[in-house]
Write a structure and sequence with these properties.
Elements (H helix, E strand, L loop, with lengths): L6 E6 L4 H12 L3 E6 L5 H6 L5 E6 H5 L9 H9 L3 H6 L15 H22 L3 E5 L4 H12 L3 E7 L5 E5 L21 H24 L1 H15 L15 H25 L9 E5 L6 H4 L8 H11 L5 E5 L12 H8 L4 E4 L5 H7 L2 E4 L3 H8 L4 E3 L11 E3 L6 H9 L5 H13 L2 E2 L2 H12 L12 H10 L1 H15 L1
Parallel strand pairs: 1-2, 1-4, 2-3, 4-5, 7-8, 7-10, 8-9, 10-11, 11-12
Antiparallel strand pairs: 5-6, 6-13
Helix pairs in contact: 1-20, 6-7, 12-16
Amino acid sequence: MIILIPKILFWIEGATIHFGIAKFLQEKLDCHLYGIIDVNSEKEFFEKQKIVDFKKIWFYRDEIIRRNSIEPGYLKKTEEEYKIDLLKVVYSDVWFHKYNDYYKYSFDEIVKILENDCMFFERVLDEIEPDYLVIRMSDASHMELLQMLCKAKDIKILTLGPSRLGYRSLISEHVDRFDKNHSIDNESTKDYTFNDVLKLMEGTGKQEAEERKKFKANKIGWINGVIHFLSLILNPEYSKYYRHFGMNLFSVIKNEMGAAWKRKRGEKFIDKNLRKNITEGKFVYFPLHLEPERTTRIASPFFANQLEIIRNVAKSIPIDHELFVKEHPMQKLKDWREISFYKEIIQMPNVELFHHSVSSHEMIEKCSLVMSINGTSAMEAAFYCKPSIIFADTIFSELPSVLKVNSWEELPDLIRNALITKINFSDISKFLNKLVKNSFEIDELKLELKFLDRFYYGGYLLDSKISEEDVRSFLEENKDELGILADAHLQKIS
């Protein structure tokens, strides 16, 4: 009998959760591990470390700056061969889009970067022919591209992401979706009550609060991160990576001063002009999504403009309803939106804009309908026996009370249908059984924050030198949680 040893390709971004998963997975499974390493300052650590026995590693940043020429027709051939839309990938990336404050790429530069990415990933995949790709939830074009190529080559993708249900995580091929083989054993179902649901959801709010608290309190991490970052950008080698184009001492200081002024000005406007109390009456609730975020850029590329969504929803709701829009409580961490954005919403006649401190649960409880691109609030609406409308498929799309927009023209009818939709709690209970069965309990965010605190100035700079001794010690300290994650991946491989 021939025993096939699985070949597993890891996407690694420093001393993070996935490096820990690789370490404990190799202790539980006879496998061949490979790694694409996306780091800068930590390169020496990965060249010398003996914690994970990688058969071979590639340093992503070195590989993509190696070639400068364009091969005519290559990208068109790639699109046709793998049946992928490359420009959709490009527009999903914050660095090529409006969120890059340092550099404006020409189309030729984007094409060159994209070509380098495709050629590098093809070469790696053809060389090792992996059975699995283990990766985090992607938020960048090159990570999306790697996954697209893997899918086209029938390489199984294991993506770790949140389940949307408290302290539970999910591993699936498609982010925020059930795999086709995700099922539920009818003999082991549980009848969930509303109180059960609230208890399960507790973790989500606590995680967000913990993250906000962490960033707010960690001033020392911010200072140390800034000092180290300024030393990095003085090194000419640092600017060779395309994501660092346009960064120099002057541009960074100028940008940070501008961002600080913008935050202060934005907060003053928000506190003065956004409503803080929910009024009586019928309303549709639309909570703003964080920007930039994969929810809008990757999961819903054709419904990413939130201002356009608000305008179209405002046109489509019944005359006896208002549209209540609420700012996201964590938007401050990514800088407040432009004041012109808020002003445009405020000026709409049947729209009210609410302060981020207003309770989202109270909004859901009092509204007639929740609308979201694909945010958790749409799932929570079902728990409060309220219908919802989304603009992108997600893990809770299968709930009968969750309707999906496919075109703007259908929006008025869809809203009218949603408002008369009856919610059956048995459907919710069935969905929760499926979600609980196919997920596992772990406080992934807390674990991630531990990594950030230990190695990356609290998360302010994911680019620092680390020692093998320190990493080995940290992994041992957190072996229980990392062991759970390794076991979950092992189960998917098995």
